[in-house]
Structure formats: structure tokens, C-alpha cells
Write a structure and sequence with these properties.
Blueprint (H helix, E strand, L loop, with lengths): L8 E3 L4 H14 L3 E4 L16 E4 L6 E5 L4 E4 L5 H7 L5 E2 L10 H7 L6 H4 L2 H4 E7 L5 E3 L16 H5 L8 E8 L1 E2 L3 E8 L3 H13 L4 E7 L1 H11 L8 E8 L1 H17 L11 H12 L1 H6 L6 E8 L5 H15 L5 E4 L4 E8 L4 H20 L15 H23 L12
Parallel strand pairs: 1-3, 2-3
Antiparallel strand pairs: 4-5, 5-9, 6-10, 7-8, 7-9, 11-13, 12-13, 12-15, 14-16, 15-16
Helix pairs in contact: 7-9, 7-12, 12-13
Length: 425
């Protein structure tokens, strides 16, 4: 959906001082700058639409300031979530934000990412304690103060939250201090199937309303369940499906399972046995994380576009059902999958890029989906970000005053519009 736009040059700094020197040089020469982590973003955020210099930060891969007592760690942009959790193995701690891709943690902060565990552990925003930012002119900013990692603060404006989700438009995130979490004592996962999409999504709402402390509750419509089952060889039933995972103590887990099973049955669903073995759970979530490739396999040789929205939980059943109807009426292949525990879902649209009419239908559908979410009191993107594709929807979401405020912040930090120009605003 986003045409390739390569930069004029690429640099690979290895230290924050080099980022500062290169940024200062580009600033003096008025050359656009585009930050790059691992390139797993989905809204064209690393496209150099005005040329310039791409700063590939993947070689800055230090893990510093690990404090087991304070549940915190500082990582540079080259550190991915899998690499960090591998480093943490044996400590009893982990970093749970999991968008699926093995993304750069600083990149995840830049896009405000979340994922399958967000319903229990939150998105990137509450899990970032401090950021080391190189500003467009090369100056260095610590958003919560140098070396600070307090778990809460009420001192001044929240600069950390300003840069989380800024998508590289305000500066380079060269280090993120992250909140770590204790590994749960016991984990259990299961697959529940339902007679309809509405029943599956209504079950999600009821599980949350009943305060069942789920760690993951993922939705697959029947098309996605069939595609994932065939692609991974797990043989999922062709039905609307929820993947549930519970974290807790061994004693508490049994009660959580009983509550979850009751909600599933109330909505006409069936629950097979719970899996507590790491290997079984690993296969389940590997299947879920392969959803993108499973969707592409529905139409070999075609292109995919993943779009997401997030709506209030109370509106989720209606919005999901309306979206599925829209897909049918539009004649599009778009299996649906989502982190429905926090109202966030995705359509994985598979289309023939050589067919301009189909590509236009995909674009029109994505715009309707965004506006449907806005009409329901939600947002045009829960985790992918705005990038190139959702700038018009952002205007509708925030209104003229909100957008003007964003522009004023951008102008104050980047007066020459050099940081990732053409994105978000």
C-alpha cells in the first residue's frame, strides 16, 4: 500500500555520540533524517518520502543498567524483544510486550506498540520509564532526567509519553529504560470455538467484565482460524475462535480457568483441555504469530496490507460484525485477528497489487474501517501508528485544535521539519 521510497544515503552509527554528530551535520545542511530499527512497522514509517539520510541504529545494541531489584533495564535500538528476554533468562523477570515481530524495543516505543499481552501488562507507553533522545539538532535529551528510573513521577510535563508513539518525527530514540515484570508461577492456555463472531467477541467482553485476570485473549474469525490451522498444521476448527492464556499462582489458576470456562459456555462456546506445558503453549502462540503468513497463503502471489483499529470494549461486538459484513460486501479477502482484550483488532487484507480496482477497494475499506472505529468512540490505530496511511484519519480523530497542537510541538522541536518528514502530520 505504501510505495517504496529509499533514502539518498544510509549511516550505521555505533554510539550515541555518533548519532549526535550526524544529526547536527544533517541539521546544518537541512537534510531530512529517517530513523530505522528493524523495519517491522506497517504504515510506511521508514519510507524516505523526501529522500535524505536513513539512520540505521541496529548496531547500537547495548543492554545496560539492568536492575533486578528495581525491575528495570536500559536498552539501545539494536536490542529486540527476543534478544532482551533471552538476556533475562534465569533472572525471574521478562519484558512482556509482544507485537509478534521481533521488533526493536526502541522502535516499539517510537510506534507505541503493544501486542498479545497488553490486556494484562499494558502497551509500550506505561512500560517505558525514560528515553535518551537525540534531538534533530544533535542535542541530547533524557525525558525523565539522566539516569532516572522511578516507576512513577509527577515532576513537570510527561516528556517520555510525548516521545512514545512519535514515530521518529521528533528525534532519535537511542536508549529506552523499560519496566520489567516477574515471570508468572503458572501459565495455562486454551482454544475456545464459538457459533458466531458476535458470540466470541461478546465472551471477551464478559470475561473482562467478570475481572478474570487473563494475560492474553486473542480473536480469530473463521477465515483466519481456517488459514492458521492449515498453514501451521494445527487443524483448528473453522469457526470464530478465542485463544486464551492465564497467568498466576498455581492455586489461583484453577479458579481462573473455571471462570473463563463458564463465560465460554454461556456464549455457546466449547473449551478443550488447558495446556500448561511450555512446548504446547509455544506451538499455540507460534500459530497465532504466523497469522500474517497464513493470510498471504490464502492467495499465493498476492500482496498483504494489515490495518488496525481500537474501540471501547462495549462497542467491540457490533464493530467487528459490521466490519465482517463490509468485507463480504466489498468482495475482499481480509481475515480478522485481534487483541480483543483491549478492543484492538486487525484486518489482514490480501489483494492483487496489479489490479488497480482491487487496490482501490482495499484503500476505501481501510478508510471506512477507521471511520467506523471513530464513530464508535475509538481510534484509527491501536498499535500500528499513523505513518503515511492514516494521516487523514488522524485529522478527523483529533480535530483541528488537536492537530494544531501537534504541529506546534513538532515545530518547537523540529523547526525545519527534518525528522521523518511526511509522516503522522
Amino acid at each position: 500500500m505504501h510505495a517504496c521510497a529509499p533514502p539518498d544515503a544510509v549511516v550505521w552509527p555505533r554510539a550515541v555520540g555518533q548519532v549526535q554528530e550526524l544529526a547536527a551535520l544533517c541539521y546544518r545542511c537541512r537534510v531530512p533524517m529517517v530513523p530505522f530499527g528493524t523495519g517491522t512497522g506497517l504504515e510506511g514509517g521508514v519510507n524516505a518520502v523526501q529522500g535524505g539520510v536513513c539512520f540505521d541504529l541496529s548496531r547500537m545494541d547495548a543492554v545496560a543498567e539492568l536492575s533486578l531489584e528495581d525491575f528495570s533495564v536500559a536498552v539501545e535500538p539494536g536490542v529486540t524483544r527476543k534478544a532482551l528476554n533471552s538476556r533475562l533468562r534465569g533472572t525471574g523477570l521478562w519484558f512482556p510486550v509482544d507485537p509478534g515481530a521481533d521488533a526493536s524495543l526502541c522502535g516499539m516505543a517510537a510506534t507505541g506498540a503493544s501486542g498479545t499481552n497488553a490486556v494484562r501488562y499494558g502497551t509500550m507507553r506505561p512500560n517505558v520509564l525514560n528515553l535518551r533522545v537525540v534531538l534533530p539538532d544533535g542535542r541530547l535529551l533524557h525525558t525523565a532526567g539522566a539516569g532516572r528510573q522511578a516507576r512513577k513521577r509527577a515532576a513537570g510535563y510527561d516528556l517520555t509519553s510525548l516521545f512514545v508513539g512519535s514515530e521518529g518525527t521528533l528525534g532519535f530514540l537511542t536508549q529506552a529504560t523499560l519496566r520489567l515484570h516477574p515471570l508468572p508461577e503458572a501459565v495455562a492456555a486454551t482454544v475456545a470455538t464459538f457459533p458466531s463472531v458476535r458470540a466470541a467477541v461478546a465472551c471477551t467482553v464478559q470475561v473482562l467484565q467478570a475481572a478474570v485476570p487473563v494475560a492474553r485473549i486473542e480473536f480469530l474469525d473463521e477465515v483466519m482460524a481456517d488459514a492458521c490451522g492449515r498453514y501451521s498444521g494445527t487443524g483448528l476448527p473453522v469457526a470464530p475462535t478465542l485463544l486464551l492464556e492465564l497467568h498466576g499462582s498455581r492455586q489461583g489458576l484453577a479458579e481462573q480457568q473455571r471462570q473463563a470456562e463458564e463465560m465460554v459456555r454461556l456464549n455457546g462456546g466449547s473449551v478443550p483441555a488447558w495446556s500448561e506445558e511450555p512446548e504446547e503453549r509455544g506451538r499455540l502462540w507460534a500459530m497465532r504469530h504466523s497469522a500474517w503468513y497464513a493470510a498471504l497463503a490464502l492467495r499465493p502471489g498476492c500482496q498483504g496490507y494489515s490495518t488496525d483499529v481500537c474501540v471501547p470494549i462495549s462497542r467491540l461486538p457490533d464493530v467487528v460484525v459490521e466490519t465482517q459484513r463490509d468485507l463480504r460486501d466489498s468482495g475482499l479477502t481480509g481475515p480478522m485477528v485481534g487483541h480483543v482484550g483491549d478492543g484492538n483488532f486487525h484486518c489482514l487484507l490480501v489483494f492483487d497489487a496489479r489490479d488497480p480496482a482491487e487496490a482501490q477497494r482495499v484503500h476505501a475499506f481501510a478508510q471506512r474501517l477507521g471511520r467506523r472505529a471513530l464513530a464508535a468512540g475509538g481510534t484509527c490505530t491501536g498499535e500500528h501508528g499513523v505513518g503515511l496511511g492514516k494521516r487523514a484519519l488522524l485529522r478527523e480523530e483529533l480535530g483541528p485544535e488537536g492537530l494544531d497542537t501537534l504541529r506546534r510541538i513538532k515545530a518547537a522541536l523540529d523547526p525545519h521539519n527534518l525528522m521523518n518528514p511526511g509522516k503522522v502530520l
